[in-house]
Write a structure and sequence with these properties.
The structure holds two protein chains of two kinds.
Chain A (H helix, E strand, L loop, with lengths): L3 H16 L3 E5 L2 H5 L2 H14 L5 E5 L11 E4 L5 E4 L4 H13 L8 E5 L16 H4 L17 H6 L4 H9 L1 H11 L11 H10 L6 E6 L8 H8 L1 H15 L3 E6 L4 H16 L15 E6 L9 H8 L23 E5 H13 L1 H5 L9 E8 L5 E6 L4 H8 L9 E6 L5 E4 L9 H6 L8 E6 L4 H15 L5 H18 L5 H17 L3 H5 L2 H9 L1 H8 L15 E3 L9 H5 L5 E2 L7 E2 L9 H5 L5 E3 L1
Parallel strand pairs in A: 1-2, 6-7, 6-9, 7-8, 10-14
Antiparallel strand pairs in A: 1-3, 3-4, 4-5, 10-11, 12-13, 12-14, 15-18, 16-17
Helix pairs in contact in A: 3-4, 7-11, 7-14, 8-9, 8-11, 10-12, 11-14, 18-19, 19-20, 20-22
Chain B lengths: L4 H20 L6 H12 L4 H10 L4 H10 L11 E6 L2 H5 L2 H12 L12 E6 L11 E3 L2 E3 L7 H6 L3
Parallel strand pairs in B: 1-2
Antiparallel strand pairs in B: 1-3, 3-4
Classes of the chains: A alpha/beta, B alpha+beta.
Chain lengths: ~625, ~160
């Protein structure tokens, strides 16, 4: 058995040493790798070797600024770490020459600096002051982009496994009490109080109990769980261990999407490392508590994000939801009492136990405590991952943090909660973000994806998009969801196709209400939300499609025509060559014309035209 | 002398399957991992393999077939050496994911769920790969490609043999 205090002291010493060495760190989360992070890493290694420099080269996970990946951090002893964005291999030599060799950062490339007690540079904004981070808090995400996620030593050096150590000392009831007092609510979407959930499982009678982690992050537009799993896998493991100890479980499962290979790899590595140090397995820290975690890779079914479907899937069945009651707290995995939480919920637990529930409850609103991680995507300037205190307004998130809408366009809506959530219009942008206020306007917190839409997004088309998704992912067990999603999708296709009638809106509303009230599981009960919220806030768009046979955002192809602006057309003929159906005619150097009857509305001509002369009308 | 290299390959597959059964025979809830591994061995799930799984794990064939057809990950037909998954999730949808899909389709000459004749690529769509910050994006095997532009899709695919 390891002496944890000795181990921690040793890890801290090593970590301090590392921080006091010249080093270059590359962000290698999925987003960093996808943007070419590995090539940047290669280039840095080559450059450092060629110049025989005494520099450590390391990697970390995603710091959150996906919009400027690949991200590279350069740090010299005693000086602040400088974070550079958009560093591609061709910039590496200059970066090393300037920052490492000449000890002068490249100011125009620097995104921000993190002093962390060292001397800051003048002329580079600090992380605390940077617009992207100023309104953020970094708690669950505090290690993301800062430590090496594949090093258990760095996790331990930064307070890791202190939570379980403290938990084992204070005892099972006290842990549950702390979680209750912290006000932590489920971060997967439902928002059920975590402490209460644990209490139910603690109370449940059973010879065997399980702690299960839902990492089947299937909501389109959400990647918080992936980022946490890739960036701080040990925090999730530690959270599960604390839960396991509190409820009396000795076995845990993480059900992770197969689409997240890097997350699965880092989790497996983290488990092996924890077992090596005796922080997982038999008799953890000499307490007599045993705990093991297994990883189950999902097999590509969105419905498995629903808790009872997930349990069936772990058991090797078709991933269909179960009828409740009995609830998983009493009859869960293999009919044994089971606690099920999502990745972010578990990742919060070690922080709460270590720093205390009072610290946690200082963040957030009356009924929604703590922080929430959101993924900002869609038509905004700065896409990425943010952690904000509950109660912040959407306007602050979208405009202050994410820098507003791309290309100076006008904000139209923000979609929260994926296919289960709703579209929020600008009239509600100043609402504080918490579970209850989002529910009040017909949306949900969901797992935390925020997809921003601008004036070029058609809200009827967005509804259709989500229905297409839920209809395809409906497991088919209950009739309201299986048949209802199909019928709603047909109505939306009819409206987008220009065949809509006003009665269709009533039919949609009626169907939506019936499905909401009668579907078996969360997927079905929430799938009408995108329709209901768009009908509530963007009804005029539906009516324009139906009455005027017009798509205001010019997205629905059946409702638009391509025309040539005679003023702008130079008669170059590029569009004629691009048109696959021969619909464009005209004399050379004379304005051309599109024959509406022959035109198939593919848009190839508009893409080819150099003079922006072909427009949708 | 006739070439027997395909027999050799079959033998290796057979051995791998036996190893798999030894590992999972008494494993609770092992059906899905077994199907996943079997698909890795054969590249897809041939009927014979599913029958063998049913026998070895002592469950009705209908159950194996039921589970295999429920999940999007399992395939009953041979697949390409490289799997392309173009993301059509919400973030990619509003940033033009459909155009990327069209471009890949045109480049390969196959549709959604289809495989090129030379078995080099299988084209699929996916409802989100969690790289929304880089949308529009796609996955080729385990590599994620982000910030895609329609006319550059071809060269991204050329590196996969």
């Amino acid at each position: 058995m390891t002496n944890i205090d000795e181990l921690r002291a040793e890890c801290k010493e090593q970590y301090e040493k590392k921080l006091n060495r010249p080093r270059i760190v590359v962000g290698l989360g999925t987003c960093g790798i996808a943007s070419g992070g590995r090539k940047v890493m290669e280039a840095i290694k080559k450059e450092v070797a060629e110049r025989s420099l005494d520099v450590d080269i390391d990697f970390t996970s995603c710091i959150g600024m996906c919009f400027m990946e690949p991200i590279v951090e350069v740090s010299l002893p005693g000086k602040a770490s400088v974070i550079y964005g958009d560093i591609f291999p061709n910039k590496v030599a200059q970066l090393i020459e300037s920052h490492i060799v000449n000890e002068t950062p490249i100011y125009e490339w620097a995104a921000m600096q993190i002093p962390d007690g060292d001397t800051p540079y003048e002329g580079i904004v600090t992380m605390d002051e940077a617009p992207y981070y100023k309104k953020q808090v970094r708690s669950v995400t505090s290690r993301l982009g800062r430590t090496n996620p594949e090093s258990i030593e760095e996790y331990i050096a930064t307070g890791g496994y202190e939570g379980i150590q403290k938990g084992l000392q204070i005892g099972r009831e006290a842990i549950i009490e702390e979680i209750k007092k912290s006000g932590l609510r489920g971060r997967g979407g439902g928002g059920f109080p975590t402490g209460m959930k644990w209490q139910f499982v603690y109370n449940a009678v059973g010879d065997k109990k399980y702690a299960v982690c839902n990492a089947d992050e299937g909501d389109p537009g959400a990647f918080m769980d992936r980022s946490v799993l890739e960036g701080d896998p040990h925090a999730v493991l530690e959270g599960m261990m604390i839960a396991g100890y509190a409820i009396g479980a000795d076995e845990g499962y993480i059900y992770c999407r197969a689409e997240y290979p890097l997350a699965i790899r880092r989790l497996n590595l983290a488990i092996a490392e924890a077992e090596k140090y005796g922080l997982m397995g038999e008799n953890i820290l000499g307490s007599g508590f045993n705990f093991r975690i297994k990883i189950k890779a999902g097999a590509g079914a969105f419905v498995c994000g629903e808790e009872t479907a997930l349990l069936n899937s772990i058991e090797g069945q078709r991933g269909m939801p179960r009828v409740r009651p009995p609830f998983p707290a009493n009859k869960g995995l293999w009919q044994k009492p089971t606690v099920l939480n999502n990745v972010e919920t578990y990742a919060n637990v070690p922080f709460i136990i270590r720093k205390g529930s009072d610290w946690y409850a200082t963040m957030g609103t009356e009924k929604s405590k703590g922080s929430k991680v959101f993924c900002l995507t869609g038509k905004i300037n700065k896409t990425g991952l943010v952690e904000v205190p509950m109660g912040i307004t959407l306007r602050e998130v979208i405009f202050d943090i994410a820098g507003g809408i791309q290309d100076g366009k006008k904000f139209k809506a923000v979609q929260s909660g994926g296919p289960s959530g709703g579209c929020i219009s600008d009239e509600n942008l100043d609402l504080p973000v918490d579970y209850d206020s989002l529910a009040a306007i017909g949306s949900i917190m969901g797992s935390g994806g925020l997809v921003v839409m601008d004036e070029t997004t058609c809200m009827v088309d967005v509804s259709k998009f989500f229905l297409n998704f839920t209809q395809a992912e409906s497991c088919g067990k209950c009739t309201p969801c299986r048949e209802g999603t199909k019928r709603m999708l047909e109505l939306l296709q009819k409206i987008c196709g220009g065949q809509g009638e006003l009665e269709d809106i009533d039919a949609l509303e009626r169907l939506a209400k019936v499905i909401k009230n009668s579907a078996l599981c969360g997927l079905g009960q929430t799938c009408p939300n995108p329709i209901l919220t768009t009908l509530r806030y963007f009804r005029n768009e539906y009516e324009a499609h139906i009455v005027d046979k017009r798509c205001p955002a010019k997205v629905c192809t059946a409702l638009l025509v391509y025309v040539i602006d005679e003023e702008k057309c130079t008669g170059c003929g590029a569009c004629v060559r691009a048109c696959p159906s021969g619909a464009i005619t005209g004399e050379k150097k004379q304005p051309h014309k599109i024959d509406i009857e022959t035109c198939i509305k593919c848009g190839a001509c508009a893409a080819r035209c150099k003079f922006d002369a072909i427009v949708k009308a | 002398m006739a070439c027997n290299c395909s027999e050799g390959a079959e033998l290796i597959q057979e051995e791998a399957m036996q190893k798999l059964f030894d590992q999972y025979r008494d494993y609770k809830g092992g059906l899905i991992p077994v199907l996943q591994e079997a698909q890795n061995i054969y590249g897809y799930l041939p009927k014979e393999a599913m029958q063998q799984i049913a026998k070895e794990l002592r469950m009705p064939f209908s159950k194996v077939y039921g589970v295999a057809t429920f999940y999007a990950q399992f395939h009953m037909k041979p697949r390409g050496r490289n799997i392309i998954r173009v993301c059509l999730g919400t973030a990619c949808h509003v940033r033009g994911g459909a155009k990327i899909f069209e471009a890949v389709k045109d480049h390969l000459g196959v549709g959604d769920g289809e495989t090129t004749e030379d078995l080099r690529f299988t084209l699929e769509t996916v409802a989100c790969i969690g790289a929304c910050g880089l949308s529009p994006c796609m996955m080729v095997n385990e590599d994620t490609h982000g910030r895609l532009v329609s006319n550059e899709v071809g060269e991204k695919l050329d590196i996969y043999e």
